[in-house]
Amino acid sequence: MEKKSYLNKNYKNFKEFLSKASSMELQSFILNSKFKNRFNLEVKGIIDDIKSKGNVLEVSSKEIIFNSKGEISIISSRIIGEFIGSKYEEDIIKYYKNTGISRVIHAVIDGNEKVQGDFIKISYKVLHDILNIIYYDLNFIKDISEEFKEKYILKDKNNNISPISMISLFIVEDICMYLGIPLILFRECIIGFKIT
Question: Which DSSP string corresponds to 95-145?
Answer without folding.
Answer: HTTT--HHHHHHHHHHS-HHHHHHHHHHHHHHHHHHHHHHEEEEEE-HHHH
